Amino acid sequence: MQLERYSEITQKTDFSTIRYAQCWEDADILLEALKIRPGDVCLTIASAGDNALAMLSQSPGRVITIDLNPAQLACLELRVAAYRALRQPELLELVGSSPSARRWALYQRCRADLSPAVRQFWDDRPAEIEAGIGSIGKFERYFALFRRWVLPLIHPQARVEQMLSGGPAVRREIFYDRQWDTWRWQLLFRLFFSRWLMGRLGRDPSFFSYVEGSVAGRILARTRYAATALNPADNPYMQWILAGRHLTALPYALRPEHFKTIQANLHRLEWRCQSLESFLDSYDGPAIGGFNLSDIFEYMSLQNYHDLLPRLVRLGRPGSRLVYWNMLVPRSRPEALAGQLRPLSELARRLHRADKAFFYSNFVIEEMI
Questions:
Q1: Where are the domains of the chain?
Q2: pTM for this prediction
Q3: Which of 199-203, 209-213, 264-268, 325-329 has the highest mean predicted lDDT (pLDDT)?
Q4: Mean pLDDT within 321-331
Q5: Which of 53, 86, 190, 313 is the most buried (most CB within 10 A)?
Q6: Reduced to 3 states, what is the DSSP secondary structure of residue 12?
C-alpha cells in the first residue's frame, strides 16, 4: 500500500500510531442508515475496521475501506485474519471483549494471513496483543486513564456496576439524578473531558480546530442521555469506557449471529492507505451505493467540506446515501446542493436517538437525487 495525497488534517496531525483500536460509531444505526442492497459497492473510512466488517453482513458486492493511517489499516487487517483463523469466542478474547491468558497464541494462529509489513507491525507489539487489540489505541488509553484514576475518585465500584446493570427507564433516571450526578462527577468529568485534556491525551489538538463552545458540557449532556434514555446494559461503548471490556453487550461486528456472514464475505473487502480526496481523484469503478464517512468532515474547513460533497455525488447514483456523524462541529449539506442531496432528517433523528456511541451531537443521512 502506498500513502497517497493527504487531506487537510494530515498537515497538522501525526498519523503513524493507532488512534482508535475500536470503531466508536454504532454500526446498528449505520447499517439502517446506509440501507445497503446486495451487490452494492460501498465506501467506508477504516477506523479500526469494525464497521467495515459490519457492512459485509449486508452482502454488498464490494466494500472499499480507506484510511490515511497505516496503523489503522493494520488493525483492520488483523481483524480480517482473526475472522478467518478464529472462532467467534476466540475473536472476543483477542479483541479484549472477554478475559484471556492466551492472546499471543491466538495471534500466532492469525499471523500467516497477514501481509509482511502488517505481520512485522504486530510482531513488534506483543504487550499490546496480550492486553487485547481493542484496548491499545490512544482513544482507548484515554478512557483507561479515566476508568483507573478518575472514576474511583467519584464512585465506588458497586455504584459503577449498578450503572452498567441498567434496568427500567424510570429507575435509571432516579439512579442517575440521585446517586450518579454528584458534584464530583460534574467537576472531574468537565476537567477530564475538556478540550485541552482530550486534545492531548485522547484525540489530537488539531481535531478541535473548528470546534466552538464547551466540549465537556456537550459530552456530559450526551452521557446523561446514554445513562437514562438508553440502557447501559445494552451499550457496549459505555461498558468499555466504565469497565474496560464488554459485559452484556457487543458491537455489531462482534456478535455471534453476524460472525459467519461476515466471515463468508471477507473476500468482498479491500483496503487502501489513501485520503478521501485521493480516492475521489482516482476511482473509476461502478457507482457507489453507500458512503460511511465517519466524522471526517469535522477535521476540515467548511469550504473544503462543501468542495468535497459534489465530488462524492459524482461517484454515486440516485438513491446513494452519505452517512456521517457530527461530534462537536456542525456539518450538513449546504442549500446550494439541494438539487443533488436530500437530507433524510426524520430517519437521522430517530437513529441518533438510538445511537449507543452516545457522544456524537448529530447523525447525518443525505440521499443523492
A1: 8-136+252-368, 138-243
A2: 0.93
A3: 264-268
A4: 94
A5: 53
A6: coil
